[in-house]
Amino acid sequence: MRHYTKDNFRLTESVGFQLVKARNLIVTEMDAALKDLDISGQQMGILLMLRQKLASTPFELSKMLGIDTGLMTRMLDKLEAKALVVRSRDQEDRRVVNLALTKAGIAVADQIPEIAPDVLNARLKDFSKAELNELRRLLRKFISD
């Protein structure tokens, strides 16, 4: 089904515009909330993925977080400079770079669940549980291949 045409397309009413605006609001609010941890919302995603063992290489992180490999490299450089992440070559395949959290990285990652829910809850305060579930369902549908 074609929902948009040249005659009815209005930028500010488009799903793309509204998703970007929603993302930018959350990123700004999350960045502010994480300021004391000296990390950004994007860096939070990397730390939590590593902490929860959902990814262990830059490629896996890029794929899961939807971030291009160049940006991922720059973000990992920053996290490594902050001594939160270490990179090492895989013993069996030297082309593969493995990632691990340092003790400081674990400590920061473990503080995130004390902060992030408040940011999301503030944005979702007017949603019922059913509305939140429906939003999640629709977003999963939207991003599925």
From TrEMBL:
Span of domain HTH marR-type: 1-144
Keyword Membrane listed: no
UniProt entry keywords in alphabetical sequence: DNA-binding, Transcription, Transcription regulation
Family matches, as InterPro entries: HTH_MarR-typ (IPR000835), WH-like_DNA-bd_sf (IPR036388), WH_DNA-bd_sf (IPR036390)
Highest taxon above the source species: Bacteria
MF terms in GO: DNA binding; DNA-binding transcription factor activity
Protein name per Swiss-Prot or TrEMBL: Transcriptional regulator, MarR family
Lineage, opening ranks: Bacteria, Pseudomonadati, Pseudomonadota, Betaproteobacteria, Burkholderiales
